[in-house]
Amino acid sequence: MKIGVVVFPGSNCDHDCQHVFKDVLGQYVEMIWHKETLLAGLDAIVLPGGFSYGDYLRTGAIARFSPVMAAVKEFAKKGGMVLGICNGFQILLEAGLLPGAMLRNKSLHFICKDISVKVENAATAFTGACQSGQVLKIPIAHADGNYYTDPVTLAAMQANAQIVLRYCTPEGKVTSEANPNGSFDNIAGIINAEGNVLGMMPHPERCSEAVLGNEDGKLIFLSMLESLKGNKKQLKMVGAG
Amino acid sequence: MKAKIHVTLKQGILDPQGKAIEHALDSLGFKNTSNVRVGKYMEVDVDEKDKVKAEAEVKAMCEKLLANTIVEEYRYELTA
C-alpha cells in the first residue's frame, strides 16, 4: 500500500509514522510537504503529531489552511482513508473533517504518559484488528486534548458509533479518574459519519514495535492495511482493478 | 483602519486558565472576584478606508481564522 504522511512546518511525529509503515509494516511511504497541491496514487493519508505552526493562535488553526489540505479534503470526500494523530486530529477538527473542537487540558498541564483507551467500535477501518471493548495502552503527549462538541452533535455521534476510543482504566472502566484531560465523555478518538476519517489523541506510532515494550498501537495500522486490502479486493471483483 | 479584536470562550465552555487565575487572585487577597475568563486580544491594520467594507473583512477574518466559532465568540471595533 502507498501511505502518504503529511509534513507541516512544526510536525515532529512524521518520521515515527513513516518508520512504522515503512520499516515495521513494509509499506511504501511518501512524505508530503504541506505545500503540495496534488496527491496521486495514495491509499491512505496520515496527518502526524507535532506542533504545526507552533500551535500559534490555536492548535491546528493555521495548518488547516495549508495548500495540501484542499487535496486532503478531496481525498477524504472521495472516501479515501485519513488518520489524524494528536496534532493531526486537531487539524482535522479545525478543517471540519471531523466534528467538534479541542480545548486546553482541564489541568492546564501538558500530559505525557501511557494511558489506556477502550475500543468502543471495533468495526471501523482503523480498529478492525481489535476486539470490541479491547483495552489498548498507548502514550499521550498533549496540552490540548480536551475534546468538546455540543450536546446535539455528541448524541448523534454516540448513536452513530462515531466514538471509537475512550480513555479508561487499565481494566477497561471508563471513569473520570481515567480521563487525563477533561475530554467530553472520555473521548480519545472519533470517526466521521462516513467512516473513512479518524482522529485520535494518543500516539499509536510510538508503540508499534516489540523492542519499545508495547505493540498495542500497531493494531490501528494493521486494521488500516487490512481494510485497504479488502477494498482493493472488492474493486478487483467488480472489475475496476 | 485599525481593528481591535477580542476572542473569548463562549459562556458555558470550561475555562481552566480563568479558574486558575481566579484562585491565584483569591490567594493574593482579592476575595471578591469571580467568573474570571481568559481571552485573546489582537490588533490588525486593515488597508481599507471604507468602514463598512473594513468591518466586513474583519468579520470574515474572525469567522474563518481568528476564532473557532464552535467554542469561541468574537467582537471587534474599528478606528481610523
Characterization of this structure:
The complex is a heterodimer of chains A (241) and B (80). With 241 residues, chain A is an alpha/beta fold. Chain A has one domain (2-238): 3-Layer(aba) Sandwich (Rossmann fold), CATH 3.40.50.880. Helices cover 24% and strands 24% of the residues of chain A. Chain A has five helices and eleven strands, in the order βαββαβαββββαβββα. Chain A has helices at residues 14-24, 68-77, 87-94, 151-159, 218-238; strands at 2-7, 28-33, 44-47, 81-85, 101-103, 111-119, 135-142, 146-148, 163-168, 187-191, 197-200. In chain A, strands 2-1-3-4-11-10-9-6-7 form a nine-stranded mixed beta sheet, sandwiched between helices. In chain A, a hairpin with a 5-residue loop joins β10 and β11 (197-200). The longest helix of chain A is centred in the C-terminal third of the chain and has 21 residues, at 218-238. The model of chain A has no long low-confidence stretch (mean pLDDT 96). Chain B starts with a strand and ends with a strand. Chain B has one domain: Phosphoribosylformylglycinamidine synthase subunit PurS (Mth169, Chain: A). With 80 residues, chain B is an alpha+beta fold. Chain B is elongated and about 50 Å long. Chain B has a three-stranded antiparallel beta sheet with strand order 2-1-3, covered by helices on one side. The interface between A and B is medium-sized, with 19 and 11 residues.
Number of domains of chain B: 1
CATH level-4 homologous superfamily of chain A: Class I glutamine amidotransferase (GATase) domain
Which homologous superfamily in CATH is the superfamily of chain B?
Phosphoribosylformylglycinamidine synthase subunit PurS
The number of domains of chain A: 1
Query: What topology, given as strand order, has the largest sheet of chain A?
Result: 2-1-3-4-11-10-9-6-7
- CATH T-level fold name of chain B: Mth169, Chain: A
Kindly report the average pLDDT value of chain A. 96
Distance between the termini of chain A: 14 Å
CATH architecture of chain B: 2-Layer Sandwich
* Main sheet specs of chain B: 3 strands, antiparallel
* Tally of DSSP β-strands of chain A: 11
Order of helices and strands of chain B: EHEHE
Biggest sheet of chain B, strands in spatial order? 2-1-3
Global morphology of chain B: elongated
User: Order of SSEs of chain A, N→C?
Assistant: EHEEHEHEEEEHEEEH
CATH C-level class of chain A is: Alpha Beta
If you consult CATH, what is the topology of chain A? Rossmann fold
